[in-house]
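Troubleshooting log. The previous run stalled partway through. Resubmitting the same two chains, unchanged.
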Amino acid sequence: MAEAADRDTYDLGDVLDADRLRAVPPGTALLISGPAMTGKDRLLQSFLADGLTRSEAALAVTTSGTAEGFVDDIRERAEFEGRALSVVDCRGEGSRESQELEGGSQVHRVSDPADLTSIGVCITEALERVEVGGYDRGRFGLTSLSTMLTYTDEKTVFKFCHVLASRLDGAGFVGLFTIDESAHDQQTLQVLKQNFDGQVQLREREGQREVRVRGLGGDPSPWRVL
Amino acid sequence: MAGTDDPVVLIVEDEPDVAGTYEIWLEEAYEVRLAADGDEGLGRLDDSVDVVLLDRRMPGLSGDELLEQIREQGLDCRVAMVTAVDPDFDILEMGFDTYLSKPVDADRLTETVEALLARSEYDSLLREYYALVEKRAALEATKEDATLAESEEYRRLTAEVEELRDRLSETIGGIADDEEFIAAIRGVDDGGGG
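Second attempt completed without errors. Output:
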């Protein structure tokens, strides 16, 4: 029994050394938060790349930069089978489309970060592709909730996160979502946090990046230099 | 028939035999309204309608056009397209919640109506959930932890938030499949803005 449980959980501890990230249950949703320029996106990409090297699938939704750029960034960090990675680019031009890149990764384009239905359809297609490809586990990343909040309201983003987290739970994925803490008021952060099982918090002190983990069954870990 | 608490199902179908059969299958548990074409369907639509069974190909106002009207008016009802051929995934993007392929049998019809009602319940639970979370966050943002620990209102809100979260994961099985996922997302999307 214990062995089966170990196999099913996700080990995120190689990216960020913290005991409670060593065995994260499938369906867990984590919020990566911090002020601007503290490396939230880099951390998210590292989590995805780490999963890919373990032959897990990865699915990303990005609201900034191109899907190709995102795939390239991940490629620099990991060797993996191309079809294990799908990226949904929410700032694409024109109508919704999907395309396979050289190397086998799939990109989906939606022209509007507020078009949640289209984003949902792309996520569904990506999950299907992952399943067809024989992957039964994977990591999902969304960057960023802050951009989504500039295109739509807090209520909508909150409900979107809830529905998405439920779907990822059903698929047995781990979900990672970034938010820029300095861009929103305390109330909004407090509301959105409700959808997450834990939080990886980043900050900068005296020129050094620091990190701590909250939630996932435990008191906040102490801040430490990353 | 009017004035019952039963959910209201509107059947828009131009073949009277087919519409009559659906009515027999559903009338025990639901308040059923019939419309013989799209224009009549539009006339029989109002806030009290929970589920619409919509034949896609009809004379006059087509199923697609009627659906457009429903979404434009912002009516809070779920729409199943009844179709002779299995449609592609994109019908969900068009605004339908699900489809039924002809010939439809009694079990499949009842299951579909029930599933659509569960989705409506999910949407309203999610709305309620957000409202409670927002209320609680407002308390957290303005009061000290020590004050919160003693606040009866805060305790009650927290209990309600937990309870709703559980109910949400039970309703429609925590969004186990793609169709439910898209439908739920569209519920979020439509409800946005205001």
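Takeaways: The mean pLDDT of chain B is 87. The interface with chain A takes residues 89-90, 92-93, 126-127, 129-130, 133-134, 137-138, 140-141, 161, 168-169, 174-178, 181-182, 184-189, 191-193 of chain B (CB under 8 Å).
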